[in-house]
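Dear all,

This email documents one entry for the complex benchmark we are building for the journal club exercise. For each entry we list the sequence lines for every component of the assembly. Then comes the predicted three-dimensional structure of the complex as a token string, followed by one or two observations. Please use this as the template for your own entries, and keep the labels exactly as they appear.
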Amino acid sequence: MAKGRIVIDEGRCKACRLCTIVCPQEILELSNRLNDRGYTPVEVTDMERCTGCGLCAVMCPDVCITVYRSVPVRKTT
Amino acid sequence: MAKGRIVIDEGRCKACRLCTIVCPQEILELSNRLNDRGYTPVEVTDMERCTGCGLCAVMCPDVCITVYRSVPVRKTT
Amino acid sequence: MARELWKGNEALAEAAVRAGLVAYFGYPITPQTELLEYLSHRMIDLDRAFLQAESELAAINMVYGAACTGVRTMTSSSSPGISLMQEGLSYIAASEVPVVLVDIMRGGPGLGNIQPSQSDYHQVTRSAGHGDFKSLVLAPATVQEAVDLIYEAFDLADMYRTIVVVVADGNIGQMMEPATMPPMRSIKTDRPNWALEGANGREHRIITSLELGAPRLEALNDRLQAKIAEIRRNEVRYAEHLTDDAEILIVAFGTMGRIASTTSDMAREKGIKAGVFRPISLFPFPDQRLEDLSKQVKKILVVEMSAGQMLDDVRLAVGKDVEIVFYGRTGGIVPLPDEVLEVVERIHEELNNG
Amino acid sequence: MARELWKGNEALAEAAVRAGLVAYFGYPITPQTELLEYLSHRMIDLDRAFLQAESELAAINMVYGAACTGVRTMTSSSSPGISLMQEGLSYIAASEVPVVLVDIMRGGPGLGNIQPSQSDYHQVTRSAGHGDFKSLVLAPATVQEAVDLIYEAFDLADMYRTIVVVVADGNIGQMMEPATMPPMRSIKTDRPNWALEGANGREHRIITSLELGAPRLEALNDRLQAKIAEIRRNEVRYAEHLTDDAEILIVAFGTMGRIASTTSDMAREKGIKAGVFRPISLFPFPDQRLEDLSKQVKKILVVEMSAGQMLDDVRLAVGKDVEIVFYGRTGGIVPLPDEVLEVVERIHEELNNG
Amino acid sequence: MAEMVEKLVYQRPVALTEAHTHYCPGCTHGISHRLVAEVLDELGLRETAIGIAPVGCSVLAYYYFNVDFAEAAHGRAPAMATGMKRANPDKTIFTYQGDGDLAAIGTGEIVHAAGRGENISVIFINNAIYGMTGGQMAPTTLEGQATTSSPRGRDISLAGHPLKMSELLATLDGASFISRQSLHDPKHIRRAKKAITTAFKVQQAGLGFSMVELLSTCSTNWKIDPLTSLDWLKENMIPYFPLGDYKVIDEVKSL
Amino acid sequence: MAEMVEKLVYQRPVALTEAHTHYCPGCTHGISHRLVAEVLDELGLRETAIGIAPVGCSVLAYYYFNVDFAEAAHGRAPAMATGMKRANPDKTIFTYQGDGDLAAIGTGEIVHAAGRGENISVIFINNAIYGMTGGQMAPTTLEGQATTSSPRGRDISLAGHPLKMSELLATLDGASFISRQSLHDPKHIRRAKKAITTAFKVQQAGLGFSMVELLSTCSTNWKIDPLTSLDWLKENMIPYFPLGDYKVIDEVKSL
Amino acid sequence: MHQSVVVSGFGGQGALFAGQVLTYAAMDTDHQVSWIPSYGPEMRGGVARCTVIISDSEIGSPIVRNPDVAIVLNNPSMEKFHNELKPGGILIVNSTMVSFEATRDDLVVIEIPGTDIATDMGDKRMTNMVLLGAMLAVNPVVSIEAVEQALKDHLPQRKQHLVESNINVLKQGYEKGIQAKAHSSN
Amino acid sequence: MHQSVVVSGFGGQGALFAGQVLTYAAMDTDHQVSWIPSYGPEMRGGVARCTVIISDSEIGSPIVRNPDVAIVLNNPSMEKFHNELKPGGILIVNSTMVSFEATRDDLVVIEIPGTDIATDMGDKRMTNMVLLGAMLAVNPVVSIEAVEQALKDHLPQRKQHLVESNINVLKQGYEKGIQAKAHSSN
Ligand SMILES: Cc1ncc(C[n+]2csc(CCOP(=O)(O)OP(=O)(O)O)c2C)c(N)n1
Ligand SMILES: Cc1ncc(C[n+]2csc(CCOP(=O)(O)OP(=O)(O)O)c2C)c(N)n1
Ligand code: SF4
Ligand code: SF4
Ligand code: SF4
Ligand code: SF4
Ligand code: SF4
Ligand code: SF4
Ligand SMILES: [Mg+2]
Ligand SMILES: [Mg+2]
């Protein structure tokens, strides 16, 4: 299981590439698909490498990115 | 001959007394006369003591005062 | 409530307080300043909002802000200050928030002087700045009427979600007359259903005057025009003096209206049938009644403390069938009863010789 | 000079330069901005004064300052910006310094939108802010006419020492049409005898709009009113299209005027005798000619990109003897020839059935 | 190895609506909207908040924030905010303004709101240009920067030096918290958020005027792509507009 | 003993007309008029000077200066001066403004004139009140000072702290010379004159924006006599509005 | 009944207040009233002036060109209203301060050394009340009792301690007015 | 002669410029002309559109509801003008970008793979010229030579180096237009 995972709301993406340059794992790239508004939304090239660091979401002006991170289950008594 | 002399334009004086408190010789006082605009203009109580220091003129908001000072004649050749 | 002697500006202020004024913003300018000064202690005592703004421009936009939250709010000024409010007024009109504005007019144009005048007529009746809109404009002639009109102005503003202007020349602001103050209203705690108060458990609300799409902006304009039409139908006010059998009809508003009444009394003594029509609502202008009267009278005399501004509205109401004579004084000069009488007498002579 | 294709805003700018514009001050606002942008390099290249002001309020007062020194100066804006200039305009009018103002109108009220509109009519024709004054107001319908009118505007402003407003809807600012530019005038080095330039070997001069004494302010107003009367006599401009035998007269100005011409051509094809009266000077309004025409035609149709503002002036000119129909679109919608034709056809039918 | 579970670490703030913005690709207006929304969520202020949109590219902010909103006349948002706050001291009032709006036409209103210590929060987007009207010179346009109204670059001898609003307003006694931050990279964006949080806390505590200036990009009118715009901001704007807190009164320090 | 001759050491400046002013007795507007006139005379600038009167008690300054003069709308003198100077760089343009005029309604215009480094000189009369309209609170009214619109004294929690305009404007790069002086005694009046001289020299040298703030009295609206007013100024205003030069760029130092 | 009364003097002579007291007295005795000050540039010139209208019917114009009665406290006011008073008008003159001599013979002119009397009675700022009292003697548009009552009712709280002295002065003025009237009707 | 031509596409597709070139060509061959852009909120949405009127008499309305000719560079423009063109109107379609299919049978529809051709010829930003050329073939409102001359005369200095390639592309479009016309009249 990867450490992190992101979900991109492709319809919102404007292909500005701001997220791509901040991803430490360099796993974000523009796709070739066109969304409804004529942009080619970003996609994850290798989700396995995602750390869930959230930097892409911090940078995204269009709030396209939801971020998950795998954490150890804490057992409470 | 006094060191200094002032001429007060009585018609301009508004009897504000600002000059009276700055005169180092304390020779300025309000008169009892009424001028055209209903003020009692300042007068010099003892012109002989005037030093021509000009402080009254520096202070007067209504530019009522002209100041003269006696100076030694300079002979030029 | 007992009759008390009130200065016009202060009476306007107190009546506004009693109408439930929650927030006042203004800037000093003669001959309106006593209104602001009065509220500077009265509002604070009541723990309501009073603020002397940095300018009229700021004041009208503060009022705009307060109005967006659904509270009763007003500003007051005099002619140059009103000019500075034109952009804000246009925004307020387009946003359909209720605002009361008092204009105590002085001599213009420019810095002019501080004497009484009526030369903001066009500015207050013809437009609230740029774009299509008209404020509801009320012009009192006595201190009591000023009190009554401003008290009502807040209701009208709320009812139509519009700007209500109470406009008077400097005389009304400065003079003292007996007036009975209306009762103190309690301030409503529930706000209207369009007011901004935080999106708590409901959809967020927006107040804006921007409609980028032309059809939507046209729809907004249609709504505004419908409102204006409704105001035209419902809010016409005027007073008449000796009009029943009048042959010469003097049309004048505010102080000029009461001066004209004196003139008509004087004229009657000389056997001249003069009467006075005094528009109280300048917008909506009482054009129907005036048109009716115009069919009965022989000549109309419009008297203003301006170069002739209400004159347009009289002409629009009456058309070209009755001759309209204009007499105006500018620069802060108030036409007195006797000089107006002279004009009336001249007209009377012309009528008899014609 | 050759015909060249010019964007309206830039053509206005270049023609102003050629008329001898010495100092321009303005603030960006759509749909006027290209005028300012053009001058931002053109004026600098010519070593003349160009400054983007911090606001329209500042811009009009910068213009006021420059005008006091007797140089040709102007500003330009669009509706909300014009509202912000009302106080300054009133001062300028009262001070009798020549100023040219361009208003490229957009949809209102409030922020509205940036689409073409004619809803500043009241604001520009009825008052320059508070007080009694009227600017000379010119409304071009083509880019060439815009060029010619603004070129002349500077002369008129100087001659009458007045404000001249060139007013057009956003279409005129944005469209391109061929225009022939007038020759470049050299800038006069001698200043008028009222201009401020330093009290060198003469009495000091004062430019003020303040007259504390009412009689003096009335004298100033009398002078202004005399000037307005003179302007009324001399500066009436209008254009006509197929009016000779018109039974239905369309009255429209600016872009609406040319659209109405297309409508009347279409109407003629259907055998309807429609013609167009296009006021070019909005103040002075060509009321005499319109009144004359009104006696010849059967109905008048006023078309505006507003809720009906010029309508007042048409009514004032024509009175109540001819029926006046109004058709207007607001919010930035431009009535097109075919929809105006529909109205004309309806009127035509009524005439034939009535 | 411990059992793992997936935790949501970032999602769209509740204080934003679902609307797509009209902003150009990469426009940092979007980032600052998000930050403000996150702060409103975190401080639990969304339900009492009233925002004021400016005239400028962010004029439609009212569609994007799930918050009650008014739209001000150009430059007058601080006056409008004053009116709202005076009539409703219990609401959270903030303005969102561009540099043309706040630093040009609205100078009088912002100086006086700050001077009075008006208990409002101001988000000030400095992108060194008039975005909405197509790229004219702003009071904050840098020396030599070409714009459509300074096509040969801002000439200091004609247009003067760019205005530093944070520095200016910080001199006023009524200003309690003034900070300038930048939106050009995640590190700075986080700092910006912290400053915005402080600004709203200042208001909550009734401490007076707070403003956060955010250095932003406008790739459309700078005529460079969104990524290069971030660099341009960093290399050109930050040296002239140094980042940091310009005013933090003691009461704010202990918040 | 040397033969003596009487020398004229002070007379009415040529740059003043013969008109009597309408100022109240002891009003220091009169002093500042005189100082400006003296400086114009001494620098030989009267013939090229154009002054701009404000809306305020000094609105009629144009009658008192033997100088070409215009009268501005309330607060807009710096904009008007800008228009004049841009069209006439060779003229000496100065504004004369009160604290309501400059620090309230005219804030935007003064900040931008200073910010642009507009080559004009501003004489700013700070008397902590709106004189002309009968004594309302000004932005410069001191804490606790009673006025007709703050009858119980200025309440900082409602009206904010008094604005210090010299400090504020001094932060602007375009401001070349900013000085605050006082008119309450001859020593300070002489210093004030020196500052006014510098301001006009700055303009002559084309060095940009200069302003001299003059602490003044308004005995009428302070409701104390003219002499006590001088003391009140000294004891109350000077501590809050410290005297001195707030901005002197290097080129000015070497004038 | 319809009467216009002008009170005019320098600022500080109490013209506006005298007018107000008269207005209150008339209002409280069920007349229609209006009070309007001159405001404008004269104020700066130190002029204080008001017009009071007292009537039994609705008041039209609150200002008049030719008043019925004028109380003039100083020379400029005397010059102005000596001219402007309507024929048969009443002119109450503060002779202490007025040197200008009435020449019109269609006026009732009552000269009272108001400032002297007020000064003698303790405060020259009560000149206004002397003259008002004198006017009431000649022109009983309201009763002196009504004016006394108005003083009691409407003098602001912080000036209530001055009620008595004002009433005394008013009465003194009234006496002098009676005497002067007797004299002038000789 | 009186004709209205709309050019419409995304921002960056050169719709405004194509309209201007046509306008220049018509003006320089002594026609009356007007060119007016859509400005307003659509611009922000990335739409660029202009209306050109070419006439032998004075031009009244510079805007029309139902244009005679439309050059559509993208889908939204196609949808709009397919609807709005007047009966018998001419629709020049950039088929590379337009998927929407014409259904009206009262139009002359000319489909040209403009973007493909322009890309092939070196720069897809010349799509506008391909379509303009094609229009001239079907609707010779001005001659192609006039348009070539207009390009030479009015392309701004800094773009003069593009004149030749633009002319080539224009000619290519013209050829394609001739072919398509022949085809469509079959
Ligand atoms: C009174 C007025 N003047 C001018 C305008 C035109 N206008 C709209 S937005 C704007 C400037 C916006 O620039 P900025 O505040 O920097 O915001 P940005 O678009 O860069 O975010 C201007 C001048 C207007 N709408 N109203
Ligand atoms: C637009 C406008 N608003 C208000 C006024 C009224 N007004 C005249 S002078 C003044 C204030 C003057 O105060 P200040 O500038 O301090 O000058 P001072 O009289 O104290 O010298 C005001 C508010 C006006 N004339 N115009
Ligand atoms: S969460 Fe971090 S690692 Fe994952 S895609 Fe975003 S930036 Fe890259
Ligand atoms: S930052 Fe957001 S909008 Fe930009 S490319 Fe990445 S996901 Fe798309
Ligand atoms: S010159 Fe000096 S000594 Fe003479 S009166 Fe004036 S202050 Fe006094
Ligand atoms: S300072 Fe001037 S005005 Fe004042 S009392 Fe002295 S001379 Fe008179
Ligand atoms: S124009 Fe500039 S500020 Fe406006 S949305 Fe586009 S990038 Fe952002
Ligand atoms: S009111 Fe004050 S500022 Fe005005 S003249 Fe009198 S003392 Fe001077
Ligand atoms: Mg910006
Ligand atoms: Mg002051």
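Observations: The mean pLDDT of chain C is 97. Chain C touches chain H through three residues (CB under 8 Å).
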